[in-house]
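Researcher: For the annotation table, I need structure tokens for CaiB/BaiF CoA transferase family protein. Please keep the output clean. Sequence:
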Amino acid sequence: MQAEQPFSGLVVLELASVLAGPSVGQFFAELGATVIKIENTGTQGDVTRKWKARSENPETDISAYFSCANWGKRSVALDLKKTAGLQILHKLTAQADIVIASYKPGDAEKLRVDYKTLSEINPKLLYGHITGYGTQNPRAGYDAVIQAESGLMYLNGEPDGLPTKMPVAFVDLFAAHQLKEGLLTALYMREKTGKGQLVQMSLLDAALTSLANQGTNYLVAGFEPQRAGSEHPNIVPYGTIFTTEDQKQLILAIGDDRQFRNLCLVLGQPEIAEDILFSKNSARVKNRLVLNEKLKMLIAGFKLEYLLTELEKRFVPAGAVRSVSEALSGDAAKALQFKTDYAENGLSGLKTVAFKLEKPMNDHLLPPPHYAQHTREVLQKLAGLDQETLQKLEAEGIIQ
């Protein structure tokens, strides 16, 4: 029998698409909440259903991209522009604990699915709203554009190359984590006060806060961060990639002088760590080019597995640069993949919840839903609609 989950009994309505909002929805689903994904009948659902890699099955409406953020949900297709469709959503709102929305400023108000409207129906409602640039800027938010505008893209890439977008929509993921934290805080406050509230998060704010030490390098020291490949502006050698004798890539993450001394011992050149040019991190930062050339030549004389073994023995942080397929074949990644009795066409996915609780969490979620797969089931159970009403709404195109 499945153990009681942390959010069992919690009902979440997801009025969001693409990645940021749906990631938050999947987080709650993984922890036991009933998550209802409201999909637009006009667009035939979340746009990411159609974002497919070349090797994907063209016949299914569940793309790999869609799968990354929609496990454990039930899909309900509604036309919210029609009065009857909106009334159904309002009935579901009365049963809900949380709404996750990702509308441009003003759009939710036009549809009458904004916090003010829905909280009048359900005063205990928590409403998490993701925008691109905040509530006062009507621009739609796109991860790639915000990576550019926030300074993240400027910092990413080789020193002599162009600014480079990160290969995953990290701004969406940062924003999702921030919104989760906000909703959990609001949920905790509701336990004390009995009142719901609006939780707002913008993609731009998430991106700016993620500048972290690069941002404070500028704010505190007036240092304008520049592209440095995988190098670190404050620590050397940290993030530096070297090629071994067997033509494999090794990354170092040396955080202190002791680790650097041990690195030099493993490489058979302990005197480098005593050289005044390299003995302290501050000196290594100033002389990084000279040091990197020395390390490049030394590391090229060793095989990867030998170095990884010896460096680990001496507690020197290092790792192999692995492909995605190599990384996902490891035991850690296998433990993060969903197990399901409903898998179709080899459907798989990675959990958004990586932490472990003392009590076991649900490891057998429903797979990502087909478009409109659960419309009748959910509207019967939560909105109290009978078969005759459902048939009439279907015939009128209000539900699918």
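Researcher: And a one-line annotation?
Model: The longest strand covers residues 34-40.
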